[in-house]
Amino acid sequence: MAARYLTRGLLENSSVLAELLEGKERFYLFAGTFDVSEQLDLRHLASLQFVKDVQTATAAPVVIILSCTDSKLSIDPAKRKACFDAQARSVLACGLDKSRTFILTPPSISSRIYRSVVDVSKCMLINEAVRGAKTDVAALQQELVEAVFCRLPQTLLGETFTKCLRIGQDRFPKAAFERANLPEPAVVQLKPLPMLQGELGNAQTFNSNCQLLFLSDDPPMIEMKIRKHAFSGGGSTKEEHEKHGANLEIDVPYKYLSYFLESDNEWANIKGEYGGGKMYTGAVKERLVCLVKEMLASHKMASMSISDKDLPYLSLTNRPLMRHVILKPSCNMIERERICEEECS
Which residues have a Cβ under 8 Å from the Cβ of 132 and sit 6 or more positions away? Predict the structure, then answer.
């Protein structure tokens, strides 16, 4: 199923994935960070389904970070844990293999690779760091921890991986990591799933409740959002549509189907019929409504079936599955010795 991302042009750098799928080198997937204070929507689902499909095709382990940017949750341990557990269930319900998926939190990662993060920090200039940050120092620290983590060899389930496939690019320049002698991970980026109103939507009237399909939306809400807000690339009149067909470059329902419709034959048929003016916008939206309802109903059932014992949090004390090799950085002309840390051995 991972092949559809290549054939439908859904990746920014498809050659990287093609080489990994054809090659024999083992790798693990770094799926990025998910904020427990944010609702998951179809953009997250698209990314996680891609990770799931690659994991299914390669049996690669997957590492995911859960973070929390809500200061109110940070001071309430019970609510914080509940949010982390709920988000972990939502992530796993996308079809990931629980036995080969590992969920980390920022403190557990920072404690494991603290020395490497410090070494890279000493090799990074202020303007390079600021360029990478989102909003504040905490965001900068989190992004730096992620960037260092996916450049270090990892031992997962008893197997050492020196190759990481990162989903999504980090914002730091390569020069900083070259100075620290850390290799670049393989990077694959999904093309962004558009808002429902598309690229032509008015940013000044942006309303995330109308522009996004959340995994928590009920069937009537899904139908209303798609029928009312999903931007169509079809002709303004029946005659115009039959003559010129739909503009698939800007049609949001078609783009969503490109990501989520698994059948290549059905997708190719919609592309040809809709693009040729033989299928109308109403039929395409109807197919998307049915598909999204099915996906979210299945996701909800899968999430409810995951118990607390199934949550694969990676613990320093009870799951000694990871080892980090801190490479030898050269900074200020000082050569440091190679350090290997074996935790929980």
Answer: 140, 143, 144, 147, 170, 171, 172, 173
HSE, CB side, 13 Å, CA atoms: give it for residue 61: 24
What residues have CB less than 8 Å from 236, skipping those under 6 apart?
none
Minimal CA–CA distance to 248: which of 265, 270, 228? 270
Helix (H, G, I), strand (E, B) or coil at 9: coil
CA angle, residues 206, 211, 216, in degrees to nearest 5: 130
Confidence of residue 179 (pLDDT cuts 50, 70, 90): confident
Q: What is the pLDDT of residues 88-143, one digit of tens each?
A: 899 999 999 988 888 887 766 766 777 788 888 888 777 777 665 456 777 777 78
- Provide the CB-side half-sphere exposure for 90 (13 A, CA): 24
Q: Rounded CA gap, 118 and 175, in Å?
A: 16
pTM, two decimals, is: 0.82
